[in-house]
Design a protein that fits this description.
Helix content: 40-55%
Bound molecules: ligand F0G
Distance between the termini: 33 Å
CATH superfamily of the largest domain: Type I PLP-dependent aspartate aminotransferase-like (Major domain)
Number of domains: 2
Mean pLDDT: 96
Structural class: alpha/beta
Shape: globular
Radius of gyration: 22 Å
CATH topology of the largest domain: Aspartate Aminotransferase, domain 2
């Protein structure tokens, strides 16, 4: 994807695929968007797709499939037990990751449920580079706690560190010494670390973490959901790996892990997920829970069509053109925003472009949820749906006090192969306009706040009526534009 040089000198990512199926989009007027965002309680999860122009909520389950994936779906072999389709996926997992055992699940968090039920005992700790919402929720639900050991650079918004997702090895050694092996359920590494901006870890870091775990006799669990992006960054940012193929890097990462799990909504551009391991003991411990929660061992809650799509999707992911598309589009967007002074996470990561709401809205205190306010404001002025990844995505302490997140981010995900460059340029244009008018944006407060996963269902109101002012300014500046 990156091999073509424009003689104009412009740095433009060039697609090495063509679009053969399209879906019509609509861009409703800002007045309708104001109604819609109010109906949704300023929670972008509660917006309806019909009111959305560019859906940058997530890259989960919305990546574009290839012609080969669709063709394979037609050939699927449906049976409750022993389907050929499942055997194909099992064989592909063995071929790519050299893992003997594969357990299917209906999506990534189902793998987390099973891993946590089987391996986390009350009072145990799970060290990790950084948590993901569902991974942490399952560990806590089983009486465990999470310790985040990402290096200090990982939490700096602006940086040029190539691997901000790396675990700090000194912190890991210190934790193992302090807790002792029996208190540690397993170590978890999340590739393409989601909540700190889709930031990668290096192959070297996983090699070091794996050596520490093996010496201490602790299981290493690798969350490979965002593997595609991380493979690209290892290939392009880690000197020692520049001559390795994507397939070789993937194999090395798998070799270093004891258990690997993934959401196929991300990895493989399909839906579903799975757990892979070479440990028969671990496999046997998890097997019964698969049949209890997911379905029989040859489908695990997935349709056989999705399983076919994963098999082809995983194969396609072992290709540099494929894994570069997301990161290059994201880098284009991040660099365009940096040029205009908009505060975003750097260096560009995978998954999406992450705007730093703390610096975008310094006048909105964390108690009024700046990332949520920015998500609401951006939808209002553009029809672009992003996701709050800040304090709203945290859960209150048992005493009811707020847990303020390390970062207040508005995530604008880039589903793979979905948007065109002019759509990305439109999003940049509206973000820049919003940045110039940022003083008009105010805070939010909860009006309906569920106890668990409040970011999915909660509703918020505005602290002042700042949205009406923003709409008036939009009309004054941009005339009758939608
Ligand atoms: N692990 C990581 C790193 C993830 O990003 C996700 C999902 C999961 C596990 C859970 O997988 O959704 O298939 O159950 N991330 C989605 C997102 C929800 O929008 O970032 P799932």
């Amino acid at each position: 994807m990156s091999r073509v040089i424009f003689h104009s000198g412009e740095d433009i990512p060039l697609e090495l695929h063509k679009v053969r199926i399209v879906q019509k989009l609509s861009l409703v007027p800002i007045e309708r968007r104001l109604e819609a965002v109010r109906e949704a309680g300023n929670n972008t999860f509660l917006l309806k797709n019909r009111d959305i122009f560019l859906d940058m909520l997530t890259d989960s389950g919305v990546n574009a499939m290839s012609d080969k994936q669709l063709a394979a779906m037609m050939e699927s072999d449906d049976s409750y037990a022993g389907s050929e389709t499942f055997t194909k996926l099992e064989t592909k997992i063995k071929e790519i990751f050299n893992m003997d055992y594969f357990l299917p699940v209906h999506q990534g968090r189902a793998a987390e449920n099973i891993l946590s039920q089987v391996f986390v005992n009350p009072g145990q700790v799970v060290p990790m580079n950084y948590h993901f919402t569902t991974s942490k929720a399952h560990i806590v639900l089983n009486g465990g706690r999470v310790e985040e050991l990402v290096g200090d650079e990982g939490l700096k918004v602006t940086s040029n560190h190539p691997f901000k997702g790396n675990i700090d090895l000194d912190k890991l050694n210190a934790l193992i010494a302090a807790e002792g092996r029996d208190k540690i359920a397993f170590v978890r590494i999340e590739t393409g670390t989601n909540l700190i901006g889709g930031q990668p870890h290096s192959l070297q870091n996983l090699t070091d973490v794996s050596a520490i775990c093996r010496k201490a006799g602790i299981m290493l669990v690798f969350d490979a959901s965002l593997l595609a992006d991380n493979l690209y960054f290892i290939k392009t940012r880690e000197d020692a790996c520049k001559d390795m193929t994507i397939r070789e890097i993937a194999r090395k990462l798998a070799d270093l892990s004891d258990v690997m799990y993934f959401s196929a909504r991300k990895l493989g551009c399909a839906r579903g997920g799975g757990i892979c391991t070479n440990s028969r003991e671990a496999y046997l411990k998890m097997r019964e829970l698969i049949t209890l929660y997911e379905g029989f061992l040859t489908y695990g809650g997935m349709s056989v069509r999705e399983i076919e799509a994963i098999t082809v999707g995983l194969d396609e992911t072992m290709d540099e053109d494929m894994v570069s598309q997301g990161p290059l589009f994201i880098a284009f967007m991040v660099n365009a925003l940096v040029k205009q002074g908009v505060p975003v996470i750097t260096p560009p990561g995978g998954l999406g472009c992450h705007i730093d709401a703390k610096r975008f809205l310094p006048h909105v205190p964390q108690s009024q949820y700046p990332a949520g306010a920015l998500a609401s404001a951006l939808y209002l002025v553009s029809g672009v749906r992003g996701m709050e990844r800040g304090s709203i995505s945290e859960q209150r302490n048992p005493d009811g006090s707020e847990v303020y997140s390390d970062m207040e981010l508005l995530r604008l995900a880039m589903p793979r192969r979905v948007f065109t460059l002019s759509q990305v340029k439109y999003a940049v244009d509206r973000i820049v306009w919003l940045y110039k008018n940022r003083d008009l944006i105010g805070g939010l407060k909860f009006v309906e706040e569920p106890q668990m996963l409040r970011f999915f269902f909660g509703k918020l109101g505005t602290v002042t009526d700042w949205q009406a002012t923003l709409v008036a300014k939009f009309r004054a500046d941009l005339g009758d534009s939608l």
